[in-house]
TrEMBL record:
Keywords, sorted A to Z: Hydrolase, Metal-binding, Zinc
Upper classification of the organism: Bacteria, Pseudomonadati, Pseudomonadota, Alphaproteobacteria, Sphingomonadales
Lineage: superkingdom: Bacteria
Record-annotated Histone deacetylase domain positions: 44-331
Family: Belongs to the histone deacetylase family.
Protein name, as recorded: Acetoin utilization deacetylase AcuC-like enzyme
Organism: Sphingomonas prati
Length: 333
């Protein structure tokens, strides 16, 4: 299977995130990508598909914000990463926001998603990485791996959040729809893919199934509950399967089988797998208990659907084990 990667993604180097009321070292380190690259070997560079496929999912004003945010931060006399501190929880009339702190409040969802000098280039080339992996699958490859970093599944149409800026899985799902395919997205990251859910919530042409930690106990808290079924044309095309902290393979496997049944019933002919390795037992910010070999079993079951599959990297923070966890998943295909 081909792996697509662009080393401009190393330019995203967030320093801090808020954690338990204080600044802590950010979990999305460049070393995550290094560990994966070391374990899987050769990669191919993405081709540039331009802004159009990004703008097919994201709000143009949000894309402008992402391209300008760090320059505006510097122009305001700040140093380091741009991070918000005030959020418009109560909706108000549209305002002409100009101060960087107001823009950060408008276009970010939390204080764990800082924007640095290299963030836009990194996330842009991450999205191009996913689009190039999709090209390989549309051209007939059975599967392809997009080594994206930063991840994407918490980013919505007009907001960053949960370490994510551009929603790589949603961007390629939309591009695949444009190519005439019927798409399902399976999100197996430990955290609910709230951005992906939000983007497709009222659409019936893209099915979203996510297996994740109960949002009563885990980020992103406000979304990912099992009664979120979709709306309008999308009613019945959104499925959240929650599992308690401590879940190991014995209880994960039935949830995966249920997900694959839902995807088969959707009539999809192309699968986007949002793959987070943070379900691993050693993950420092997560609470499931999958073992490295379980990722091979996970891949066997997904591959048994026969669906052409684009695998998009999301989370996974046990850096020492991340390479072998990803390589094990890929070998299972
Ligand atoms: C991004 B992805 C841990 C707090 C974690 C943010 C998690 C973002 C995860 N106590 N807060 O889904 O892997
Ligand atoms: Zn995650």
């Amino acid at each position: 299977m081909i792996t697509v990667f662009d080393d401009r993604q190393f330019g995203h180097r967030p320093v801090h995130e808020f954690f338990n009321g204080a600044l802590a070292a950010h979990a999305d380190t460049p070393a995550r990508a290094t560990g994966i690259l070391r374990a899987i070997g050769d990669t191919v560079a993405p081709t540039d598909h331009g802004m159009a496929p990004l703008a097919a999912v994201h709000d143009p004003a949000y894309l402008t914000f992402l391209t300008e945010a760090h320059d505006r931060w510097l122009a305001a006399g700040r140093t380091g990463d741009a991070i918000g501190y005030a959020w418009p929880v109560v909706g108000r009339r549209p305002l002409d926001l100009t101060r960087i702190d107001a823009l950060l409040g408008r276009y970010t969802a939390d204080a764990v998603t800082p924007i640095g000098a290299g963030t836009w280039d990194a996330t842009y080339w991450g999205a191009q990485t996913a689009l190039t992996a999709l090209d390989h699958v549309l051209a007939g490859d059975r599967s392809a791996f997009a080594l994206c970093r930063p991840p994407g599944h918490h980013a919505g149409r007009d907001y960053a959040g949960g370490y994510c800026f551009l929603n790589n899985a949603a961007i390629i799902a939309q591009a695949a729809v444009g190519a005439g395919r019927r798409v399902a997205i399976l999100d197996v990251d430990y955290h609910h893919g709230n951005g992906t859910q939000d983007i497709f919530y009222d659409r019936g042409d893209v099915t979203f199934v996510s297996i994740h930690a109960d949002p009563h106990t885990d980020f992103p808290y406000f979304w990912g509950h099992p009664d979120e079924h979709g709306a309008g044309d999308g009613l019945g095309a959104n499925h959240n399967i929650i599992l308690p902290r401590g879940t190991g393979w014995a209880d994960y496997a039935p949830a995966l089988d249920r997900s694959l049944d839902l995807i088969a019933a959707s009539g999809a002919d192309l699968l986007v797998l949002s793959f987070g390795a943070d379900t691993y037992e050693g993950d420092p910010i997560s609470g499931f208990a999958l073992k490295t070999e379980d990722f091979a079993t996970m891949a066997h079951r997904i591959a048994a659907t026969g669906l052409p599959t684009v695998i998009v990297m999301e989370g996974g923070y046990a850096v020492d084990a991340l390479g072998s966890n990803v390589a094990t998943l890929l070998s299972g295909f």
